[in-house]
Amino acid sequence: MARARLGLSTMLVYLAVAALFVPFAAAQSSLSIDAVTDFRTDNATDTDTNAAVTAALPAVESVHGADKPRPNIVFILADDLGFTDIAPYGSEVNTPSLSALAASGVRFTNYHTAANCAPARAMLLTGVNNHLAGVPNIPEMLPPEQRLQANYQGVLGDDVVTVATLLEDAGYHTYMAGKWHLGMEPDKRPSRRGFGRTVAMMDSGADNWEQRPYLPLYEQANWFADGERMTLPEDFYSSQFLIDKTIEFVGENHGDGQPFFAYVPFMAVHMPVQAPQEYTDRYAGVYDAGWHALREQRLQRAVALGIVPPATAMTEMATTRDWDALDAQRQRYEAKRMAVYAGMIEAMDFHIGRLVDYLKLTGQYENTIFIFTSDNGSEASGPDNPQAWPTRLAPALLGYHLDYERLGLEGSYNTISPSFASASASPLSFFKFYAGEGGMRVPLIIAGDRLPRRNALDTAFTWATDITPTILSLAGVTQPGSRYAGRPVQPITGYDLVPLLAGDVERVRSDDDAVGYELTGHAVLFQGDYKLVVNQPPLGDGEWKLFNIVTDPGETVDLAAAQPERFQRMLLRYELFQQENSVLPMPQGYTQMRQLLLNTLHTRYRNDLLVLLLSLLVLSPFYVAYRMRRKVAA
Questions:
Q1: For the residues 323-329, what does the mean pLDDT come to?
Q2: pLDDT by residue (tens digit) across 211-242?
């Protein structure tokens, strides 16, 4: 198929597609792009940092050893991967590479991240809460009122330092291959944020088979190599290509005596969900029993593995349909959608294995530490029935097909529905875009031959901002304070997890430490074993609730009435979090779908009134459908 390119003649069709997929996201998940923030009552100071480093020294020495060279570090980030989507966490999906890493390290069962990609990536790469790092939301959905504030631009701020910059300055080679989505202006590109070699997809997503955008937000799929625009190869498949480039980068400097840091943010399993046929075929028939059965099966396996407690209960999401009410043809199609999803996960795992094999072949594996996680939980924005009109029409006009036989291959537009997304997050509630555990609790594996604990489970609460200080600790690099390279910077507020990796402590946070989160009214405060949370409509009810997420990860028993003092105390701490992290209120009447469409129309069509009017005409029936779905969800 020829490379697809956008022009004005196709933009009406693209807007129709945006209105097609975005309303489902809005109706099912309110399109709330979660901005998650790390919070302490006191901001970290140089004294705090030095004390923390001193306390962690025994653990660091147990990992490093007196005569060991500095380790290579490979940081692998999946996109939209659910809590039980890989075998070490209870999945039926075959992931031998990740299973092997889990067996050689530590699986964290209480790790949390943002419920959307860009805010999570900001925290993962800086150790700074995302509101202060400049990414409280993705830029595509920021209202103009909020953009008046410096920390509400949706791109990585100039007053934060990336882990890549710190490692590069300490003598590491630094590489990145994958999705960036933290700013596309020249000074925001990864090649200017500490990465020596890069190949980066700059947008929120793109096609996995071709250099084409997946939504009308973008005129083209914006791929850059070392800071300059690039053209993808004809034999491109995203997971294979990203590992090819990582191996290429590592090989360029192999043997020069310097360690490397490789950041590999995959596009799997972000929409469009696409996989080579051989991987999809392995899951033929696996999902024929439907999403209810899958959600229960994954719960049972997660319990057997020790990922969740034996008494874990779970609720059924309002967006989960009745599998038995579907006719045989519809069940067959839904099972195929999920088979492609599983195939995409296994394909990612296979290519991770290629990188591991390369490092073993070149003698670098034993000195490499791997970190694997996901940017957020399961994606539930796919339509319930993509073959229904007008769902079927818009992808066809765009050049995509929805054919059963070719689903997941080049030219197809595949997603999973909210029903299977609920199974992907089993046994948790909610999914991406929401503050429920299903949107925020994801796998985290830290592994390597140098680590003292093997095939271990760790139940300590951990957070996205902890990744950067942990990487720095593993590399023996001191955290910066309030200044770096002669300028003021936001101090790192995450915690070093090396003491957990060494088995020296049970927790890195005390019961008084709190971690806050907010985005468009969805909000959280974690403290000890407890979580204060509010999820807004249409799936949430807008009421604050209190859960013990250690004993009740499914968030089934609200403790607000039973523990009123704790409830009120945590509400006050959340208010303090808002103040200290410059959290802004949402404009009256704000919705993610409306803002996304307004931003798109303003950016792309502000100089063409006729096209704007025609676009609104095309979009109006989809907006009506969106309003109807909101009423149903409510």
A1: 97
A2: 999 887 788 999 999 999 999 999 999 999 99
Nearest C-alpha neighbor of 376 from the set 117, 134, 38: 117
Task: Return the amino acid letter for 11.
Answer: M
Specify the DSSP element, H or E, that contains 97.
helix 96-103
pLDDT of the residue at 391: 78
**Cα(519)–Cα(253) distance, integer angstroms:** 42
The pairing of strands 462-463 and 111-112 is: parallel
The tens digit of pLDDT for each residue in 62-102 reads 666 657 899 999 999 999 999 999 999 999 999 999 999 99
Candidate list 64, 131, 173, 181, residue with the active-site label: 181
Indicate the helix (H) or strand (E) that contains 444. Answer: strand 444-447
Lookup: tokens for 217: 């937000």
- DSSP calls for 124-182: HHHSS-TTTTT-SS-GGG--TTGGGSTT-SSS--TT---HHHHHHHTT-EEEEEEE--S
Single out the residue of 129, 133, 127, 130 nearest to residue 164, CA to CA.
127
- The DSSP-derived string for 470-536 is HHHHHHT-PPP-SEETTEE-PPP-S---HHHHTTS-S-SS-TT-EEEEEETTEEEEEETTEEEEE--
Catalytic residue among 117, 131, 270, 351: 117
- Cis-peptide, bond into residue 427, ω within 30° of zero: yes
Question: How high is the pLDDT of residue 371?
Answer: 98
Helices (H), 314-444: 328-361, 393-398, 418-424, 437-440
pLDDT at 163 > cutoff 70: yes
- Burial (Cβ within 10 Å: 0-12, 13-18, ≥19) of residue 356: middle
Measured distance CA(356)–CA(515) in Å, rounded: 34
Domains of the chain: 24-580 (3.40.720.10)
Residues 6+ apart with CB under 8 A from 121: 77, 135, 180, 181, 182, 265, 375
How high is the pLDDT of residue 45? 38
Rounded Cα–Cα distance for residues 436 and 167 (Å): 34
Is the separation of the CB atoms in 434 and 538 below 8 Å? no
Residues 605 and 613: their CA atoms lie apart, in Å, by 10
If we measure between CA atoms, which residue out of 309, 321, 214, 216 comes closest to residue 271? 214
Beta carbons within 10 angstroms of residue 431's beta carbon: 31
Least confident of 3-12, 301-310, 313-322, 539-548: 3-12
Say whether 270 is catalytic.
no
Decide if 545 contacts 554 (C-beta within 8 A): no
Cβ-contact 126, 133 below 8 angstroms: yes
Q: How confident is the model at residue 606 (pLDDT cuts 50, 70, 90)?
A: low
User: What would the mean pLDDT of 37-61 be, rounded to a whole number?
Assistant: 42
Q: What is the pLDDT of residues 532-577, one digit of tens each?
A: 999 988 889 999 999 999 999 999 999 999 999 999 999 999 999 9
Order of all β-strands in the sheet with 105-108: 228-229, 223-225, 197-201, 173-179, 260-265, 72-78, 368-374, 444-447, 105-108, 456-458
Is the four-CA dihedral 293, 296, 299, 304 of positive or negative sign?
Answer: negative
Residues in the chain: 634
The pTM assigned to this predicted structure is: 0.89
Q: Which of the four pLDDT bands, split at 50, 70 and 90, describes residue 630?
A: low
* Residue in this structure with the two tokens 């959600």, named with its chain if needed: 295
Does the annotation mark 117 as catalytic? yes
